[in-house]
Amino acid sequence: MKNSQLLFRFIAYMKSAKKEYFIGLISALLATGASVIAVYLLSKVFDGVEGTITEKIVYRSIIIALGYGVILVSSGVLTYIRNVYLIKGANKVYVSIQKQIYDHIQNLPISYFDNMPAGSVVSRITSDANVIRRFFTNTFVNAVVIILKLLFIYGVLFTVDYRYALVMLLLIPLMYGIMTLYNKLNTGNIIEYRKAHTDCTAVINEGYQNLEVIKAFNNEKESIAHWSNFNDHRYKTAIKMNKIDSVMLHTFTGFLNIIIFAGIIFYYSYSYFNNNKFGLTLGMVYLFINYTQDIIYRLTDFTMEISVYTRAIGAAKNIEEVLKLKVEEDTGKISTKEDFRGNIKFENVYFAYKDDNYVLKDINIDIEENKTIAFVGSTGSGKSTIMNLLIKFYEANKGTVSISGEDVKNYSRDYLRSQVAIVLQDSFLFEGTLLENIDANGNEKVAKEALERVGGSFILENGRTLQSQVEIAGNNFSTGEKQLICLARALAKNPKILILDESTANVDSETEQYVGRAIEEIKHNRTTLIIAHRLSTIKNADCIYVLHRGELVEQGTHNELLAQNGRYKKMYETQTGTIN
Predict the structure, then answer these.
(1) CATH, range 344-576
(2) Once rounded to an integer, what is the mean pLDDT over residues 367-384?
(3) Number of H helices, E strands in the chain
(4) DSSP state at residue 334
(5) CA 7-12-15 angle, 5° bins
(6) How far apart are CA 242 and CA 248, in angstroms?
(7) What CATH code would you report for 3-323?
């Protein structure tokens, strides 16, 4: 997408703040016109003092000065209104952009997040969106004010001295040339700086999330060095940008100011010594100097805003990369099924996350409803992948996955997932109330009953209630409490299918007993799929499937698998040292 198209894409967000921008732009128009007229009035005072000062001239000067003051005050009030409404509009735009990015990310397929660092995602929602906000807050506002002011200034200049106004018009192509050269020299640096900034944010986020691991392995120095590499690149890129800014925007414009001021003095002197050939007055000279300086400053400001515009384009490209990603398509037509049951079937299923590197190979599984089924195997054997296919996080490359006699592809995503509850190894609680974490509908009776049934009544002690606040990631609850709350969440959902993915892996033996009893409670009248490393927790499963390198190598009850004297028995002996 071209830069101009990217810009217009984000200008379209201004529709969400039409009222604010309308009032702000009208105020900008009036305030800018007032400030230009104020200078014109003040120049008339200088014209009044060129000859003999009379009482009439004094009164005239006083009236002009009073008018000047009224206009300045009016301009100040209008500028305040302009800033309030345009900044308010910019913040509305910022919120709109953030909301669209966040909503879009929520609807991206899980596969997108397999290769995208969390910090990069966060950077697009916060840092890149904030660059766009600054563009609408500062650059857009400044550009409007600059254009309006130049129009007013040139309008006055043409009425005062068209010859001088025509000469001043040459500044526009001159500054345009400078802007074009500046843009050519600095655009690459600015885009590279945005990319380096995003990389830094991603590394910081990764380091913060894994701070305990870094400290445990004494990797602080390596972590700092890793981040410093990215930060040094960002620093060097910023230096390149600043050097170009310094030469092209400051040194050149200062030199240009000197040349033009010298030209004005020569212009006035030549006219004066030739019987005022051009009809110049002291007030006109004041007007020329003031307006010329304003023109140069405004054009320079406009040039400087190009860098912000370019940064906004860089940020827009980052955001566009996310927005152009295809959302998770939901082709399923079945949004409800009265006889939905928890019987599951995998028929000749193959699946690969990438190319033909299959992590599941010819999987055939037939699970009756209300049965408890366990999946075991070494890391990477395909246990979690089976669950991912079941709830449509991914789709099988070959074969069919069906629930209640229907291919999962035919179920709408929302309906299918409403019938399934998952309790993961890493129990996660969201910031909010305990009630909101258990029951999304806010039903206290359902939430309390769910907690009681999983044996978590003790959580509502020592002043805690369902309205108690949960800190970020549930840091004010123990690991066992969080796991019981997650189990209560699953029970409150009342699903047909329950998936327990290593749900006891991160708890101690005593807590495991609590969690185990809770699992037994919520297993009633629903199909339960358990992924487990601790084989002692799945002895009573109706069937255990053993996976190895994506293939189903054994299946049966605990005792049947031990009798087979195969991989399951070796795994069990490794963990317990005995055979029961």
Answers:
(1) 3.40.50.300
(2) 89
(3) 21, 12
(4) B
(5) 150
(6) 10
(7) 1.20.1560.10
pLDDT of residue 57: 63
Asked if pLDDT for residue 504 goes beyond 70, the answer is: no
301-333 pLDDT, tens digit per residue, is 777 676 677 777 777 777 777 888 787 777 888
Characterize 541-569 residue by residue with b for buried, 16 or more Cβ atoms within 10 angstroms of its Cβ, and e for exposed. bebbbbbbebebebbbebeebbeeeebbb
Q: What is the DSSP string of 294-322?
A: HHHHHHHHHHHHHHHHHHHHHHHHHHHHH
The most distant pair of C-alpha atoms in the chain lies apart, rounded to whole Å, by 122
- The tokens describing 551, both together, are 């293939």
* DSSP at 126: I
pTM reported for the whole predicted model: 0.64
Q: Which residues of 10-22 are buried (b: 16+ CB within 10 A; e: fewer)?
A: beebbeebeebbe
Q: How far is 377 from 479, CA to CA, in rounded Å?
A: 25
User: What value does the mean pLDDT of the chain take?
Assistant: 82
For the record, the structure tokens of 394 come out as 């991914």
* Domain regions of the chain by residue span: 3-323, 344-576
Q: How many CA atoms are closer than 13 Å to the CA of 97, on its beta-carbon side?
A: 34
